[in-house]
From TrEMBL:
Organism: Streptomyces parvus
UniProt-recorded name of the protein: Ligase
GO molecular function: ligase activity
Record Gene3D superfamilies: 3.40.50.20
Domain BL00235/CARNS1 N-terminal: 33-109
Top-rank lineage group of the source organism: Bacteria
Upper classification of the organism: Bacteria, Bacillati, Actinomycetota, Actinomycetes, Kitasatosporales
Keywords (A to Z) from UniProt: Ligase
């Protein structure tokens, strides 16, 4: 567990910042670094974390779960919220961004409209909407 000093020398545990899966092109690693730069603890929720070598190289926390199951993602995020707080849920993977947004909204966190994200992912629905 990481602690960051705040205020009068008190150490408090930083909030988690959850990323549902990652991509393998490098932006997932940058998301984790950006979270750390803001004093947050990044954690990647992944079905197969070995797909993301940067997790071990950068000592990024992860949780293994079925990320295709929205209820499993929600349960993992609830556990994180109970363990130091949860500042946000997102994804660097276009495939999981709607799941991340739905989860964040269900937890009362700021997130884009999951329905709009789903429309953008479906090219036929996107054309109809535009």
């Amino acid at each position: 567990m990481h602690a960051f000093p705040r205020g009068r020398g008190c150490a408090v545990t930083a909030s988690w910042f959850a990323l549902v899966e990652s991509n393998t092109t490098g932006s997932g690693r940058r998301f984790c670094q950006a979270a750390r730069d803001r004093g947050l603890r990044p954690v990647v929720l992944a079905a197969r974390p070995e797909r993301y070598p940067y997790l071990a190289a950068d000592r990024v926390d992860h949780r293994v779960l079925d990320t295709g199951d929205p209820e499993a993602v929600l349960a993992a995020c609830r556990e994180l919220a109970a363990d130091g707080g949860l500042a946000g849920v997102t994804s660097s993977s276009e495939y999981f961004i709607a799941t991340a947004a739905r989860t964040a909204r269900r937890l009362g966190l700021v997130a884009p409209d999951p329905a709009a994200l789903a429309r953008c992912r479906d090219k036929a629905r996107q054309r109809d909407a535009l």
